[in-house]
Amino acid sequence: MKVDLLLGLQWGDEGKGKIVDVLTKNYDIIARFQGGPNAGHTLEFDGIKHVLHTIPSGIFHEESMNLIGNGVVIDPVIFEKEIEKLKPFNINFSKNLCISRKAHLILPTHRLLDAASELSKGKSKIGSTLKGIGPTYMDKTGRNGIRIGDIELPEFLKKYRKLANKHETMIKSYNVDLQYNLAELEEDFFSAIENIKSIPFIDSENYIFNELDNNKNILAEGAQGSLLDIDFGTYPFVTSSNTTAAGACTGLGVPPNKIKDVFGIFKAYTTRVGSGPFPTELFDDNAKRMSKVGNEFGATTGRPRRCGWLDLVALKYAVKVNGVTKLMMMKGDVLSGFKNIKICTSYDYNGEKINHFPFSVDSKKIKPIYTEFKGWDEDISKIKKESSFPKTFMDYVSYIENELQVPIAIISVGPDRTQTIIR
Ligand code: GDP
Ligand code: IMO
Ligand code: MG
């Protein structure tokens, strides 16, 4: 009986989907606890690539239950499309998937509000995925939100209308040029609401209490990354939920003393999609190479991801905030062929050397201080055991482990399930 967490330690897209899929065989329940369709989690096996947005990444394993927890925000229209895409794969959704009644609904007007807010910000926009995440969490904390459980209640339509009307007034007040046809959007929304009813709605915290009493193992699947956390990320260029370990407690109803391992996942370099500070960002041929070889395009929006060297200052911070017990390093294969590889080990902050992630991560104030490593030429993507790795690659791995004082338990060398070395 235990709950383990798997969380991204950077700005998202670390490879969470792949590793959750690899680890699912050790768990009875895979549970998403925050975020929503802003997430894009990629899994690859048998030559097929799947991208999941709301559905937990354990869905391809018949024996596991997949729970969408109370901390998640759900767009029924996107959810319906996800289910549709998975239809050819013979998944028994009503048996292997369930949704917390306390999860909040993303309305079409939440998406419009997201767009209006971004338009009104102009150049200083967040670079949101425009899935309505911010406005939905605002309604949750503002105590105006509509939850999955409300769908079962007679007042649902009345509640919907009242909130949608309020949103329309808010959209107008932004005074931006946003064209939309709400009637059309609502048609899709209400049709999707009918469809989502085929998935069991449950009192998920109670389900979790019972399953823990029944000696079941739970893996909580994080979305986004620690540096996008609403409290600890590079605010305001963050998402609107707690992406860090504490989010799993509030987003599922898991007490902190039931959490055992915290798996922290990171790329061997750094990427970020959307706006906001990124101290180790590169604009040279190295960045182009990372982007091309790593296929660094957003799984949800298709936008190019910004690329740069590994930032150990930020990574140490994320390890501390989450209490990481095991690390997982992804995409080391992308760095093959780089003559030299750099790791940022401290910041020059307005002329002073600092080792911590400061309040204001302003790219104008921060200059990364690097330690340089010799690269490796070998293609490592087909390696099956640790002893076959080039020495320079293992030097890179050991350096990171020593600096972070946490073991790297998994090394991933490609997108496929099989390209995973468990140490
Ligand atoms: P997530 O949001 O954390 O699940 O990550 P994404 O799916 O958004 O992005 C990770 C991308 O890297 C996906 O395209 C994966 O298929 C791919 N990927 C995962 N692990 C590896 C790896 O070790 N090597 C390479 N080359 N690609 C990987
Ligand atoms: P996964 O789970 C990478 C980024 C957006 C934007 C900011 C706010 O796949 O790792 P939002 O739509 O939440 O209002 O956007 O956060 N962002 C992500 N970046 N991976 C994600 O999820 C992300 N989810 C949101 O690009 O900068
Ligand atoms: Mg992603």
Give a summary of the structure in a few sentences.
By secondary structure, the chain is α/β, with parallel strands linked by helices. 31% of the residues lie in helices and 22% in strands. The longest helix has 18 residues, at 156-173.
What would you say this structure looks like, in words?
By secondary structure, the protein is of the alpha/beta class. It contains 12 helices and 20 strands. The protein has helices spanning 16-23, 76-86, 93-96, 108-121, 133-141, 156-173, 182-196, 204-213, 246-252, 285-293, 312-322, 391-404, and strands spanning 2-8, 29-32, 41-45, 48-52, 65-68, 73-74, 97-100, 104-105, 201-202, 217-221, 259-267, 270-272, 306-308, 310-311, 326-330, 340-349, 352-354, 366-374, 408-412, 420-422. The strands form 5 sheets. A 10-stranded mixed beta sheet has the order 9-7-5-2-10-1-11-15-19-20, with helices on both faces. Strand 16 (340-349) and strand 17 form a beta hairpin. Helix 4 (108-121) packs parallel to helix 6. The longest helix is centred in the middle third of the chain and has 18 residues, at 156-173. The radius of gyration is 21 Å and the shape is globular. The chain starts with a strand and ends with a strand. The structure holds guanosine-5'-diphosphate, 6-O-phosphoryl inosine monophosphate and magnesium ion (MG). 6-O-phosphoryl inosine monophosphate (IMO) is lined by residues 8, 11-13, 35, 38-41, 126-129, 131, 133-134, 223-225, 228, 239, 273-274, 299.
